[in-house]
Design goal:
Order of helices and strands: EEEEEEEEHEHEHEHEEEHEHEE
Strand content: 25-35%
CATH architecture of the largest domain: 3-Layer(aba) Sandwich
Largest sheet: 8 strands, mixed
Number of domains: 2
Number of helices: 6
CATH topology of the largest domain: Rossmann fold
Distance between the termini: 25 Å
Number of strands: 17
Length: 290
């Protein structure tokens, strides 16, 4: 397991009955989590003093119940000196996936040790956690997401983290169409980060279904890697894409062409009350020999 254990401003306090109690800075949130299948006693008193609670609806979706929570606040990831703007919005999210810090630490170190200019392509880049981490390490990042609102949010995070404006190129576009244009232009990258949704639509209604689209998409990505790429990272929150599946695809398409080695594992967060680890998805990592 790869554990995101370096947070000071974020904590999974406890989990029970399909929900997790989290601390985001000084605010407590209760949110549903499909991995929490156990029904343990909620002896932790902070279950009863949360600032907001997201209630899942039996008809799908859900809604927030707010008690004492600002419309927006900031937390920091101290190891990399990053600051993130948070706000509750639909589908229980806050604009950040804290478990991804395990990956940020990994590629931050790789970029730092490369000792050469590194161009990173971040696809399905959301609110830019990975973009900020890569830029903080000194990389030039091309950030691509189909949502104009998410790209604007990512810009806020980069600004709050004090990153140079020249360190990121911001692109609002369908990721597949962007890749196809980059291939025609002959543009290449040293590293690729991708965090594809299980299901989504592009700005012009393009449908993305991960089980059908992910392998052809990796094949496209391979074509924009340069001759000596540094790393390739895939994140997945889809149950069917287990670590071994990610490893298999990276081995077929990236390792076969560039050598190097592939690892894949669960990404987890520590749970304070139990001392156990909460699974939060899977990641596959390819890294070159250089």
């Amino acid at each position: 397991m790869w554990i995101a254990s370096q947070w000071k401003d974020y904590e999974v306090i406890d989990t029970s009955s399909g929900e997790k109690l989290e601390r985001w800075g000084k605010y407590l949130l209760i949110r549903p989590d499909p991995q929490v299948l156990w029904d343990t006693p909620k002896t932790e008193s902070r279950w009863r003093t949360s600032n907001a609670h997201y209630h899942r609806s039996s008809r799908g979706g859900g809604e927030w119940e707010f008690f004492d929570l600002p419309g927006q606040w900031i937390i920091s990831y101290n190891p990399l000196a990053l600051n993130f703007n948070l706000k509750p919005f639909n589908f229980k999210h806050t604009g950040l996936f804290p478990e991804q810090a395990a990956n940020w630490d990994w590629f931050y170190t790789k970029i730092k040790k490369a000792n050469r200019p590194i161009k990173v392509l971040n696809l399905f880049a959301y609110t830019g956690g990975a973009t900020c981490a890569a830029a903080a390490a000194g990389a030039f990042v091309t950030h691509v997401d189909a949502s104009k609102g998410m790209v604007s949010w990512a810009k806020e995070n980069a600004k709050s983290s004090g990153l140079p404006e020249t360190s990121v190129r911001w692109i609002v576009d369908d990721c597949t169409k962007f890749l196809e244009r980059e291939i025609r232009r002959g543009n290449t990258y040293d590293a690729i980060i991708m965090d594809p949704p299980s299901y989504g639509r592009g700005p012009k209604g393009e449908i993305w279904k991960i089980e059908d689209a992910i392998y052809p998409f990796i094949q496209l990505c391979r074509k924009v890697l340069n001759k000596q790429p540094l790393f390739f990272l895939i994140n997945s929150y889809t149950t069917g894409l287990q670590p071994a599946v990610l490893s298999y695809m990276l081995s077929l398409e990236i390792k076969k062409k560039f050598g190097g080695h592939v690892t894949a594992d669960e990404i987890v967060l520590p749970v304070t009350a139990s001392g156990l680890a909460l699974p939060c998805g899977a990641s596959g990592r390819w890294e070159g020999d250089i």
